[in-house]
């Protein structure tokens, strides 16, 4: 039995995937690295994955599939995962070797102690080209180095959402709830971190800089120009999140508040980029996504609009739109999220 399964979705990733794999190999034979080649066509991604599998047959598994997108690759990794815990590392990112050793020690102790742990959270670091690394940590809102529940969680800042970079889930939990990400769709990482949350009962936070999140390639999905060209994808994901859970029925107040703020953040992204496009048809799409939320669940709509982000996004007219864009640009400079 493996302690940790890590899936690396790869699509034409030959240039950088080796660094991600090499950092994970330091976890030893208690780790399982599932390299999913998602139908690469422009380079030797699959050949590289198979070479690693040949050199490290007890650690690395190379899986090839027809192109289905990031979500399909994560689905394949989860379906093939044998580890007690599950993690996704994108092929252009990497992990801290020192932090990985600490994570593996903790997960081993959890398994040996027969304790229940649904979600582990660690810090992640923005590795943005031309800038100093910037760490997102959770010391003010999550108890450190102990098991806790949603009742123990504090207030998250808008820069502190739990992302795919920071989270590990218990593999069996993801399989039990039937997590399946949509294929040929961008931004599915939001579903990965959001959908399981109501099923998470026990958590643990380590204040260590585990994940190194690289930002700087022109074709990255978080590149602003790319995001503006994929707004239909962002709207699709946001609608999926709206449909995923009725937040008004979640009894745990702190979980409800966190999920409402997360959904407000997703609505904010849609609102900001649709406004920034300057196209009249996108202004209508902005109105439509808010109408969709209200139609699907009026109670959830009121919850979202009572969050800080929701209130700002509701500012009317051209003046309101200017304030929204100004707030986004200010936040972008401070938090450096794309």
Can you characterise this structure?
It is a single chain. By secondary structure, this protein is of the alpha/beta class. Helices cover 46% and strands 19% of the residues. A hairpin with a 5-residue loop joins β6 and β7 (134-136). α8 (231-244) runs parallel beside α10 (280-296) and α9 crosses α11 (298-305). Residues 334-338 have low confidence and may be disordered.
Topology:
Blueprint: E1 2-10, H1 17-25, E2 31-38, H2 45-55, E3 60-65, H3 69-80, E4 83-88, E5 94-95, H4 97-112, E6 119-128, E7 134-136, E8 147-148, E9 167-170, H5 171-176, H6 189-194, E10 203-215, H7 224-229, H8 231-244, H9 253-276, H10 280-296, H11 298-305, H12 308-313, H13 317-335
Parallel strand pairs: 1-2, 1-4, 2-3, 6-10
Antiparallel strand pairs: 4-9, 5-10, 6-7, 6-9, 8-10
Helix pairs in contact: 8-9, 8-10, 9-10, 9-11, 10-11
Q: How do the SSEs run, as a string of H and E?
A: EHEHEHEEHEEEEHHEHHHHHHH
Average pLDDT figure: 90
What structural category do the secondary elements indicate? Answer: alpha/beta
Number of extended strands: 10
Short characterization:
By secondary structure, the chain is an alpha/beta fold. The chain is 46% helix and 19% strand. Helix 8 (231-244) runs antiparallel to helix 9.
Features of the shown structure:
338 residues, alpha/beta, ten-stranded mixed sheet, 13 helices, 46% helix, 19% strand, globular, disordered C terminus
